[in-house]
Amino acid sequence: MEHCSGSHWLVLSGSGKSEPLDIAMRPIYKAESALEESYLKEKAEYEEWLELSKKEKGEQRIEPKKCLRKTIHCR
Question: What pTM value is reported for the model?
Answer without folding.
Answer: 0.53
